[in-house]
Amino acid sequence: MIRCSMGATVMSRLRCIVCVAPLLVAPVAVAETIEFGFGTDKPPYVYENEGRGLEYDIVQAAMREAGISLNVRHLPIDRLHLTLEHGELDAIASTNIQSGLSNVAYSDVVLYYQNVAIALASRGLVVECIEDLSNLSVSSFQSARRLLGGAYAKMAAANPRYREEPRQITRSRLLYSGRVDVVVADIRIHEQLSKQASAEVDVSQPITVYPIFPRTPYRIGFRDAELRDRFNRGLAAVRASGEYAAIEERYAADEPEKALSGVTHVVNGAVRSAAGSER
């Protein structure tokens, strides 16, 4: 009887140990989730319906290193800025320090876009500087007047035929249908979206590219500086590990030098890669 009683006691203790043991295991770290906004479809940077892209992949990799998970929303650029200011999003990609946003903590530079002016070659336009756009009909992307510097903002304000499009593919339709003189776009976005517009307009028409803009640095805009700092550390880790370069390589086929082959005339210089590593 004593042995039986002692056995029961031992078994009870073992059951208690088994029950308590899981509580003693170190908890698994769970990534913090934030509300994050990307722009609408702008390949190769963001493929809205595929959850990927050069910009998208770099941001996700850096956030992963920072222990941050994203609840992603896609919005036109103006709405991205507005919802960030109103506190409906925790961070957005991509913006820069010329955006005019208040109470925003900007990250280190994530990548560069190479914006250019583009016209049908048949128009024979002479465009040597931003001011030369003043007397032309121009279609650009949303917030360009805020993101492309003072000279551009001045031109846009004074030009009654200047417009900005919430959907970037609209520019390709306008250009190849002859409804505007010039479009302003990142060269890689233009090339990719022109392919998508090929069923609607004749994109085989020769174009002239005018590289009148310097590379534009783009950053992540955060509501919280501590989140920004964590992201910056994650971005630095992604660069140091070689993952940033590997992501660039995945989208290397969309480099502007390759995109321009065949149908495009480039004047006043070459178009350079849009990605970069400066802070």
UniProtKB/TrEMBL annotation:
Solute-binding protein family 3/N-terminal domain: residues covered: 33-255
Pfam families noted in UniProt: SBP_bac_3 (PF00497)
Species of origin: Pseudomonas matsuisoli
Family as reported in the entry's similarity comment: Belongs to the bacterial solute-binding protein 3 family.
Key words, A-Z: Signal
Protein name: Arginine ABC transporter substrate-binding protein
Transmembrane segments: none
Signal peptide limits: 1-31
